Amino acid sequence: MLEGRPRVGGRVFTLEDVAGTPDAGGAVIAPGYARVVDRAQQLDVALKPITPLTDFGGSMAIHLEGQTIRAAEWASSPLNPFPEGPLKQIAPYAVGSAALRTLPPAFQSVGDWCNPDLFAQDISVANYLTARGWTSAQLKLAFATNPGYGNTASDLSVLMMWHIAENFRVMASSGTQTFQAVGGNMRIPQAMAAALKNDVRFNQHVIGVRSDAASVEVVTLDGTVHKARWLLSTLPTSAARSVVFAPALPLAQQSAIDGINYNRTFQVFFEVAEPFWQTDGLPMALWTDTFAGRILPIGDAKGSNMLMAYVNGFRADMLSRLPAEQAVTHVQAAIERMRPAAVGKIRAVKQVNWQDDPFAGGAYTCWQPGQISAGFPRAFDAPVGRIVFAGEHTAQLSRGMEGAMESGERAAIQLMELL
Q1: Does the structure show a pLDDT above 80 at 336?
Q2: E strands present in 83-238
Q3: What CA–CA distance (Å, rounded) separates 203 from 221?
């Protein structure tokens, strides 16, 4: 097994050098993550329930255009661009998903996003909602200010958003309690690696794959050649783009590798010396239109000792272009402008820039309009010669860590059939 990083886990990343070992990727084991939970239990990795800290001190507040607005005041705020009705009552970080819900649900199962009968809806969220009366100001607030997916409503597929909503609905049927591995979720892939018969070979940056009718050769950056009968590739498409395949992959697979992108995410973790929210009277958590993105507490509800600034979209892209120290300064300055009580009370201890990670290229798969109907999600269903593909971007039913496990299960079955 070859791993490009000096650690296992990929985008499941626990900050082992930070107090409290917070997770910077794969932070939540959601309800319905049956494969993840089962594997953790098999390997004796203890799980603990997660307390939703955003609820302590009140629901997440909103900061727009220099004003901080409590969740309960949002409906009457002059900055709320929605007319009287149900959407006006919903916070900006949830209103987009709410607007895309359909009655009855558009999907009958989580796999319907790849149903050709629904491909007519593989259009942009911008086009879909504009046709239903949304304004550009409403689209910007819900999908471009601090987006959970993509950068704007123009680069999100309606089918993807319906697929995500159906996943949440199915997971909610298993309850609402979320979990985390004790010591961080990276404990699960670490335990999986320890259970292997052979050691993982770290720092193996793959740059080339050669295959023929009898074998596969993998070439790493240092010139080492590894030979095997079959290859299982879990590379994200962003990393696979820099690999030379000989012979070249068929058009369906290469087009998917070239086109599938990952969500821009930039994070900064702060130690909190004193609970400044007790001074300013605002909730711990804040959703903003600044370089601080979403400010989320991490730690114990009785006294959170860490905050995470979680920045997405174009602002994350801009931060990633700056020197790390300068980017962190921008984020901290944004927090202190919004919450003067935080001055002298927070200290940045770690920043994580997912889109500039050469082995990730972003945090999680984001499907653009036209990609689903073009067959990108199904491009890796079958082996290509002696190469079998897996990874979250190849999952059909689940997303996140559970999607990665689903794809690994499918790939393992394929390899057993080939062997």
Answers
A1: yes
A2: 179-181, 206-211, 216-220, 225-228, 231-233
A3: 9
Q: Which helix (H) or strand (E) holds 287?
A: strand 286-288
Instruction: List pLDDT tens digits, range 195-206.
Output: 999 999 999 999
Positions of E strands within 273-334: 286-288, 294-298, 306-312
In the block, tokens 């994580």 appear at 352
Find, among 234, 198, 185, 201, the residue nearest to 39 by Cα.
185
**Residue 42 reports pLDDT greater than 90:** yes
Q: Which residues contact 77 (CB under 8 A, 6 or more apart)?
A: 67, 69
Quote the tokens at residue 381: 């269903």
Range list of β-strands (E), 34-173? 47-49, 61-64, 67-69
Segment 103-120, tens digit of pLDDT: 677 888 899 999 999 999
Structure tokens at 267: 């994070």
AA identity, residue 211: S
End-to-end Cα distance, the chain: 17
Quote the CA–CA distance of 308 and 336 in Å, as a whole number.
14
pLDDT tens-place string over residues 262-318: 999 999 999 999 989 999 999 989 999 999 999 999 875 555 689 999 999 999 999
For residue 389 the two structure tokens come to 């593909």
